[in-house]
Amino acid sequence: MSDHDILSDAEREALSAVMLEPDLPAQRVLIVDDDKDSRELLSEILALDGIRCMTAASAETALKMLKEKPSIGLVITDLRMGHIDGLDLIRQVRESERAELPFIIVSGDADVKDAIAAMHLRVVDFLLKPVDTGTLLELVKHELGIMDEQTPT
Fold first, then answer.
1. Among 22, 79, 108, 125, which has the minimal tally of Cβ within 10 Å of its Cβ?
2. pTM higher than 0.90, yes or no?
3. Adjacent-strand bridge partners of 32
4. Domains, the chain
5. pLDDT tens, position by position, for the chain (153 residues)?
């Protein structure tokens, strides 16, 4: 340790260990859909690729989870739901402390007006059901900063 070092050798080692820690909590995906089967299917598809998910059956539940769970790094939401639909959910989040959170909309019932509204709300993408799982996985991994181990051929 030189006279100009602020940290002791022990402090420097501890800092290095923390910065190189490989087990930092992974960002989770929150799946919001009032249809239980759709929620479970999307969660299983992502889990098969090692992506950790949480689910919510309503936008109200999703808003509560977003306040309580900072590990949520991406939201996949249905468009048509109960009291608060997918677009309203995104609007409310855009006005909160989580305003920059990325969203992917997955819907079986949408029109051009919905897609335009979604783009104005800065969604990552708008996918129609049945979802192309390859496209969904690619979008999710990109948004969470997960690199594929496979090299392009």
1. 22
2. no
3. 56, 77
4. 27-144 (3.40.50.2300)
5. 445 667 777 777 776 665 554 544 448 999 999 999 999 999 999 999 999 999 999 999 999 999 999 999 999 999 999 889 999 999 999 999 999 999 999 998 888 899 899 999 999 999 998 999 999 999 999 999 887 655 454
